[in-house]
Amino acid sequence: MSERCYRCGSVNVRAINAEISFALGTADPVYALGRPIVCLDCGFAECSLSEEPLRKLKESIQVRGPIDAHRGATLKCIA
Ligand SMILES: [Zn+2]
Question: Does residue 39 form part of some domain?
Fold first, then answer.
């Protein structure tokens, strides 16, 4: 595997099967299956969402608004 961690530059990264839920306030959570790349040195993870969960997430944000989008974020997903 030739990927490097965007945060720390480590080559100790792996693709790991995951189920991710995105919960915005009191809105119903949006679930997505994916295979994020996880850095086993610093914990940084990146993933892309497929079309359906991305659409649901956009709808949820449009209802709630983007004000709290970055507060307390511990998982970054890079498309
Ligand atoms: Zn890292």
Answer: yes
